[in-house]
Amino acid sequence: MELLAGNARSALTHLLAASKAYPSNWKLQQMGESRQVIINNAMGCIYGSILRKPHLAYGFFRTAISACTPEGSAKESGLVSLPVPWRLALQYNVGLALLQARQTQPAFDCFLNVLQTFHSNPRIWLRLAEC
Questions:
Q1: What domain range includes position 108?
Q2: What is residue 74's predicted lDDT score, i.e. its pLDDT?
Q3: How many angstroms separate the CA atoms of 53 and 58, rounded?
Q4: What does R_g of the chain's alpha carbons equal in angstroms?
Q5: Domain count, the chain
């Protein structure tokens, strides 16, 4: 709610408090999600959309993606295997951060990867046109 209201400091405070409140083996792992991925994605959204720091947002999104394994690979590495829509949402967020940082060619490549699955989403076409 704080993120939607534009209050970055409060959103960061709530996010960090929530990340410390839940143990690392919280039920997310059973649901196929990772606390590290969710928190890094949220941090990237805060830094990218409210604070207008696309390079920091890019770093958080890349950290979230690096905490994932490719679909179907072994989980003994301690990494989580995310479903395709989650993975593509992270890829879209990376593209947005790159576009805000005026790195249009890598952003275009990110949006093309997302477009292969979500070809009927007009936002992706809009972002491609912006690139």
A1: 2-130
A2: 41
A3: 9
A4: 15
A5: 1
CA 98 – CA 10 distance, rounded (Å): 25
Distance CA 88, CA 111 (A): 9
Q: What gap in Å lies between CA 90 and CA 82, rounded to an integer?
A: 10
Which residues have CB under 8 Å from 51's CB, separation 6+? 8
Mapped onto helix, strand or coil, the DSSP state of residue 56 is helix
19-58 pLDDT per residue, tens: 666 655 555 554 556 777 888 888 888 888 777 889 989 9
Q: For 89-131, write each residue's pLDDT tens digit.
A: 889 999 999 999 999 999 999 999 999 988 888 999 999 999 9
Q: Please identify which residue in the block is written with the tokens 């720091």.
A: 53
Longest dimension (CA), the chain: 43
Query: Pick from 22, 37, 20, 39: which is nearest to 78 by CA?
Result: 37
Residue carrying structure tokens 């790159």: 98
DSSP label of 68: B
> Could you give the angle at which helices 104-115 and 84-100 cross, rounded to 10 degrees?
160
CATH code of 71's domain: 1.25.40
